[in-house]
Specification:
Number of helices: 11
Shape: elongated
Strand content: under 5%
Order of helices and strands: HHHHHHHHHHH
Distance between the termini: 83 Å
Number of strands: 0
Radius of gyration: 22 Å
Amino acid sequence: MSSNIIPKNKAQIFHKKALEFQKVGKHDEAIEYFDKALEFEPNNAELLYDKAISFQMLLRFDNAIEYYNKSLKIDPNNFGAFINKGLCLSSPNINRQEDALLCFDKALMLLPNDLGALSLRGYALDNIGRYREAIDCFDKILEIQPREVNSILNKGFALSHLGKYDEAIAYFDTVLDYEPNNFFAMQLKQEAVKSMKRDFLR
């Protein structure tokens, strides 16, 4: 009976099984079933994308990037593929921040006001020293969500990099008003205060 199943249905069956494994964190098993599905539909962008996700969850970033690229070649409007590829590229093991930034830029071309993509773009810009542009990203987010704590924190961090410690401290204080136990805000504020004192004593 199973030998009469048409290839497309076989691909769907294997894809479904792969997603079941993926859902419970069994990514090695998921990849095996993605491979079985891809034998029948090698140019299925969704399959390639889903397989990339399992590689990413296994921290096999080079493999994940390879499959995100394959998926994007077929479906160049996959917002999630650009975001996830950018996250792989910006990981410490890969550390290709400029390439990650290009991915986030392409994602924002598809969804210009996506707050997650704006935040990732800002973080990538900060990582490569383009602090003013990073601040612009965080400002765009804060125009939409004025109490978005991570963006307030990241803007303060970027201001610290520019040597604007008093402004940075004000942003860290705002975070602490919202979240008094925010460890990162406390630590970054302490570092900004120390830096400001060093500059004052010079």
